[in-house]
Amino acid sequence: MVLGAWLAAASPAQVGLAAREPSLSDVLRRAGVYVETFQQRLSGIVADEHYVQDFRPAQPSADRDQPPLHRELDSDLLLVRPPGAAHYVEYRDVYAVDGRAIRDRQERTGALLLSPSPTATDRLRRIIQEGARFNIGTVERTINTPTLALSFLLPANQWRFAFKRAAPRRQPDRDAGSVATATPFRVTAEVWAIEYRERETPTVIRSPRGASIKSRGRFFIDPTTGRVLISELVSEEPAVRASIEVSYQSAPLLDLLVPVAMRERYDVRRDGSRIDGLATYGKFRQFGVAAGESIRTPQPME
Fold it and tell me: Is residue 190 in some structural domain?
């Protein structure tokens, strides 16, 4: 009798709990607000980036002019929105390549961020190209920045994509010889896996010649707060398949989940070559640039 009464009383409560589970549109709305706040907050922060790239040609070559097979970049990574621009873009300010300092770093950075430019679009293009000039391999690419996929969740961009809730996460496959094997991608909270697929053209990502390349992938999102723990991005065309995965964790003194690791892979179908990359991030700190001033040295957060 007591057990039966308990069950009868519990059932309506259980139904109520189930009814309060957020819908997919609720979670996407929260994620959109979170990414907007993320960009505004992160635009005042600079991070150290250590970025390792490995290029594996299809056939070994003794040619002295062969592109480098291994590269290590040390950079400051900034999220900036130039005057007049409609959106933020990541700026990779490389200060060392394979352990050697970049001599003209301050001059180049000042020219990009402070000097007059004909249009905001031109300045954005130059910032993006600057961050890619030390890439190795046979693939021309500017998508290798950690927060690119997050922009798909912005309220202004969600209409471009089809979203659906996916099955629980599987650990990503890894090749034993890849630099990506060291990346600590883990989900430690209750999250939703949400698949996305771009459906509109022109697309966010384009080929060097301007052709549309549709993206797809998954986000792992806290459904209560909209915070993104992991982003996965796949972009492919007949010649190249690219995949980029980014892991986010909380940072001291910041009420944000910041990127801590980015792993990438490019499979070049035309010649069988491959590029692997692993970037790690740390030492998040405040920075400031004011018009008419020299760029101030980033200071540790108090």
Answer: yes
Mean pLDDT by 10 residues, the chain (302 residues): 38 52 96 95 89 89 70 91 78 91 65 57 69 88 94 97 82 42 54 96 90 96 96 94 96 82 95 95 75 36 30
Cβ neighbors of 227 (< 8 A, separation 6 or more) are 31, 34, 221, 248, 257
Is residue 136 in some structural domain?
yes
Domain around 237: 22-286
CB count in 10 Å sphere of residue 52: 16
Q: Other CB atoms closer than 10 Å to residue 1's CB: what's the count?
A: 5
CA 220 to chain centre: 13
296 domain residue, yes or no = no
Q: How many domains does the chain have?
A: 1
CB count within 10 Å of CB 283 equals 13
- Containing 129, the helix (H) or strand (E) segment is helix 120-132
142, part of any domain? yes
pTM above 0.90, yes or no: no
